[in-house]
Specification:
CATH topology of the largest domain: Methylamine Dehydrogenase, Chain H
Radius of gyration: 32 Å
Largest sheet: 7 strands, antiparallel
Strand content: 15-25%
């Protein structure tokens, strides 16, 4: 058998060896040991009963505090004491049995808790000193169970093993993933618990859920020890680790298999470990290529850094939809634009569309879902026709554009006063475009989920002036409805099939004497649909909680308190209220940003807190707070209220709102209230590196192929994921939104498509295609009608764009090129046709093809003057990019490139001639710079010096830059 045939057979056998399993069912009650728990002694003599009422104490992280529970900490301490008592030499069998029963019951009651908290635990540092750390009570209880001596683990197995085995048996018989997950979560430290982990890993692997499978296999290896894991299971783990991109874990597995020195048998055939590894290594890892279809959340998938199949857009609209319906809203938008342009600030929008596929009967319709200044809209991606829309009662169009009986004077008064303050050029006119809590949505092919809120939060000083919001002076005249809306928002689910009918809503005010789930709550962004649940961060009375919701009914499944913020209330903090907290997920861990000084990691497999990472720098300014009355004008950065009180303005934002990115076991993130970009370990939240934000940095664009991209006002740079070092930096122009990354092309390169308002060279709108691997501009795709692209999204051969003005669909360039190829076949020597195709090839980044078309067009005897001028200009552009990309390969065109720098000045006079001469000098300067750098890269330093001197002195002709 040939090696290729053998490898194919090997892969088939490997995949076939993975058992097919399935999912979903209810949990069972936890067991309890027969012996009662004794009361632990209180060092202070007071006595603390495990499970007693929690003291309201907290762990201070600076900008916020973590909840902790001394009663649970006492239970942990008590369990440790009982383990020591049971392990003590000379203890009677009866006392040992009692001690083991007490320790096991205490620890099992903590492992089985639905809600988790941090507890203070004493640890011995490497230098021998005692220190206090704060850990998850559930994780600490599990650690104590795992660390018990053999006798204690045997007692634990005897006590809880039968119940675990019964649950696991039922889960296997019913193919119930969730029930098996409960076995793992509740009884991980029993024999059935470890078998459940292996079952779950295989279940996810069978469904190509490689990230989840790798997480389960990692738990299995850590829990059992790799030396005790069966060979067949290790093979599955290696397969999962490969496709999840975890090369370190894959290497560890193969090292263990090689250590055992045995042949692996698949379907009865012996296979060496080396052959197996070679076969798996040659498979295409799927970590970076996910579904080519829907992007139901902001940045497509839960890891928030997905690369989707896509390509260069052809910037002529297939269809478009306007964002504004009323003239009154349009006037406010124009005011904001003018104010930003007056200060030369980028017009950056947080409006980001999502996609879903609607199924009605046998018909499937690809849909684009977006929010406008009027409400939520759902359109057919292919035709651009509206499927349904729903108006928001609080939208700018609904309030400012209302007339007659629909006009609400209280809302109008409030909005007019708020916008009048913000739209001053020195305050924050961009606030009209950056409410990411509202402008980002999520979907799951059945529902659309959106936060309903006021589009522009009231300025801090106006709210603090109102006693209804904890203010310090007489009330404003905004009316009770506006007053209520300021103190909470709502989360709504719209039925995708039933034309936007509201299926449920959460966050409504509590009625007198009635309990309403999540009443008077702020939802801090659209929920993340994940594994049959919705996850969303909420804030109520400054307490941050992670809430789990059943998507069809809106039932609150779980509410996990995370922290209490020490910043202002959201009603008094307009910027934080409008900054979405986009949750991310990878390898079984949910990453929860707060925009309030810390980010959390939560293990969804065990519903336990993993880590909390505070990121605010020590020199960060304290939260704004009212100051005492005083005479004179307000100092810079403060506002003086009518009663003389000072209030610090809260307009400072370091980074634009984006989501954390989960990649290769790491979390990379920025936050509006953080000065740095941070990278932490996904497993334990340990800081790996941080890099200071530069003054021109705008947003973190995601992690692609081991590089974290940062987009600035004119430049884009990449940081290595491993160390945070600058991998490359290039000029890209002023961005007009967030881009999209394509899946690796035929050469294995990833291209990031950045929308640009003003390109470096042309000062015109374009999409700048950046080769992430090489750190070069792959292509400049220009908008022929000078339309500015916005936040981009790939979907089924279409490139979608949303700005603050419109939503647009662009076809991919390949479609237009296919048409031009057919035309060139019929007119192979037509200079106009060749020039047009060359222009499209230049947009695509095919420099060789573009140069060939432009040169052939210019070689034609019959060529119109306008076509000739265009072909020369485009050939100059193509040569410039070619010489930047690869000087040595482009060197054959050196003299021809120099010729293209010349502009025909005949017949030009006045301003036209001046402009042409300026352009000629610019081209000549660029040419000399590129030649100088190219000669230097070839180590031809004397020639590089001569060219550099020519460039600096402006002496054309004294030195021949093309000499060799």
């Amino acid at each position: 058998m040939s090696w290729s045939s053998r490898r194919a057979s090997l892969v088939f056998a490997l995949v076939a060896a993975i058992a097919t399993l399935s999912a979903v069912a209810p949990g069972l009650a936890q067991p309890r040991p027969k012996r009662p728990i004794e009361k632990p002694a209180d060092p202070k003599g007071g006595g603390v009963k495990p499970g007693g009422p929690a003291k309201k104490e907290s762990y201070d992280l600076g900008s916020l505090t973590l909840p902790k529970n001394d009663a649970l900490a006492g239970k942990i301490e008590y369990a440790g004491e009982r383990i020591k008592a049971a392990s003590k030499a000379g203890t009677s069998d009866a006392d040992k049995s009692d001690a083991w029963a007490n320790a096991c019951e205490a620890l099992q009651s903590l492992v089985g808790r639905d809600e988790d908290v941090f507890v203070p635990i004493q640890r011995t540092s490497p230098d021998g000193s005692e220190t206090t750390v704060y850990v998850s009570v559930k994780k600490e209880a599990g650690r104590l169970i795992a660390s018990m001596p053999r006798e204690g683990r045997a007692f634990y197995q005897a006590t809880y093993g039968p119940k675990a085995a019964s649950m696991a048996k039922l889960a296997r018989e019913t193919n119930d993933f969730r029930l098996m997950g409960q076995v793992m979560s509740l009884y991980l430290y029993t024999d059935s618990g470890i078998e459940a982990v292996s079952w779950l890993g295989t279940w996810m692997l069978d469904r190509a859920e490689f990230q989840g499978a790798s997480r389960f296999f990692s738990i299995l290896i850590n829990r059992s020890g790799i030396q005790d894991v069966k060979e067949r299971t290790l093979i599955k783990a290696a397969y999962a680790f490969h496709h999840a991109g975890d090369t370190a874990a894959k290497g560890m597995v193969f090292k263990e298999l090689a250590r055992r020195g045995v042949e692996v048998r698949l379907r009865g055939d012996p296979v060496t470990v080396a052959d197996l590894r070679d076969s798996i290594d040659k498979m295409v890892a799927r970590v970076s290529i996910q579904s080519a279809n829907d992007s139901p959340i902001y940045r497509s998938h839960p890891n928030r850094s997905t690369m989707l199949p896509g390509g260069t857009p052809f910037l002529e609209q297939s269809w478009s939809q306007k964002m504004v319906r009323s003239d009154a809203t349009g006037d406010q938008v124009k005011r904001a634009e003018n104010a930003l342009q007056a200060r030369n600030l980028p017009i950056y929008s947080s409006f980001a569309p999502v996609t879903a596929t609607m199924t009605k009967g046998d018909k499937q319709t690809p849909l684009l879902i977006y929010r406008s200044y009027w409400g939520i809209h759902v359109v057919d991606v292919k035709s651009g026709k509206l499927v349904w829309d729903t108006r928001s009662d609080w939208s700018l169009d609904s309030v400012l554009g209302a007339t007659g009986k629909e006009r609400d004077s209280h809302k109008m008064t409030a909005y007019t006063s708020w916008l009048g303050y913000y739209l001053q050029s020195t305050v924050r006119p961009q606030v009209l475009f950056e409410n990411s809590v509202l402008s980002t949505l999520s979907a799951d092919n059945k529902m659309v989920y959106a936060v309903e809120d006021i589009p522009v939060a009231p300025p801090q000083h106006m709210v603090m002036f109102d006693p209804r919001f904890g203010g310090i002076a007489p009330a404003t005249g905004w009316g009770p409805e506006v007053g209520s809306a300021i103190q909470h928002n709502k989360l709504l689910a719209y039925d995708l099939v039933k034309e936007g009918k509201v299926a449920w809503e959460l966050g409504v005010p509590a009625a007198a004497g009635a309990a309403v789930p999540l009443s008077d709550t702020y939802f801090l962004g659209p929920p993340l649909p994940l594994n049959g649940n919705l996850y969303v961060l909420t804030e109520k009375q400054q307490e941050l909680s992670l809430v789990t919701i059943e998507p069809v009914s809106g039932r609150v499944v779980r509410q996990q308190p995370l922290a209490t913020t020490k910043d202002l209330k959201l009603s008094q903090d307009p910027m934080r209220r409008m900054q979405a907290s986009h949750l991310a997920y990878g390898e079984g861990i949910l990453v929860v940003p707060t925009n309030a000084g810390a980010i959390f990691g939560i293990d969804l497999l065990s519903n336990s807190l993993l880590w909390a990472y505070p990121y605010r720098e020590k020199d960060a300014a304290p939260p704004p707070a009212p100051g005492g009355p005083g005479p004179g004008p307000a100092p810079p950065g403060f506002i003086r209220l009518p009663n003389g009180m000072l209030v610090k303005a809260t307009m400072d934002v370091h980074w634009q709102v984006t989501a954390p990115a989960v990649s290769e076991g790491k979390v990379v993130f920025t936050a509006p209230d953080a000065k740095d970009i941070h990278c932490v370990s996904l497993r334990d939240g340990a800081r790996l590196w941080s890099v200071a934000r530069r003054p021109e940095d705008l947003y973190f664009a995601g992690v692609y192929k081991g590089k974290a991209l940062i987009v600035g006002k004119t430049r884009t740079r990449a940081l290595s994921l491993n160390r945070g070092e600058v991998a490359w930096e290039i000029e890209t122009g002023q961005p007009s939104g967030q881009g999209a990354a394509s899946a690796p092309n035929a050469d294995g390169d990833v291209i990031y498509y950045l929308p640009v308002r003003e390109a470096i060279n042309t000062r015109e709108p374009e999409i700048c295609a950046i080769n992430v691997d090489k750190g070069i501009v792959h292509a400049h795709t220009r908008s022929r009608k000078k339309e500015v692209p916005g936040n981009l999204l790939f979907f089924e051969g279409t490139v979608l764009s949303q700005t603050h003005q419109e939503v647009v669909a662009y076809p991919q360039l390949e479609i237009k090129l296919a048409e031009m190829d057919k035309l060139v076949k019929t007119k192979p020597d037509d200079p106009a046709v060749l020039t047009e195709r060359g222009d499209y090839l230049l947009d695509k980044g095919d420099l060789g093809g573009a140069i060939a078309d432009f040169r052939k067009a210019l070689q034609q005897a019959k060529i119109a003057q306008a076509t000739k001028l265009k072909a020369r200009a485009k050939l100059y552009e193509a040569f410039t990019e070619y010489f930047q990309r690869s000087f040595t390969k482009a060197e054959d065109y050196l003299k021809e490139y120099e010729e293209m720098c010349k502009i025909d000045l005949a017949g030009l006079a006045g301003p036209d001639r001046t402009a042409a001469e300026t352009e000629e000098r610019r081209r000549r300067s660029t040419f000399l710079q590129l030649v100088g750098k190219g000669r230097e890269s070839q180590n031809r330093l004397v020639e590089a010096f001569d060219v550099s001197r020519t460039w600096h002195q402006g002496e054309e002709g004294r030195v021949d830059p093309a000499r060799r």
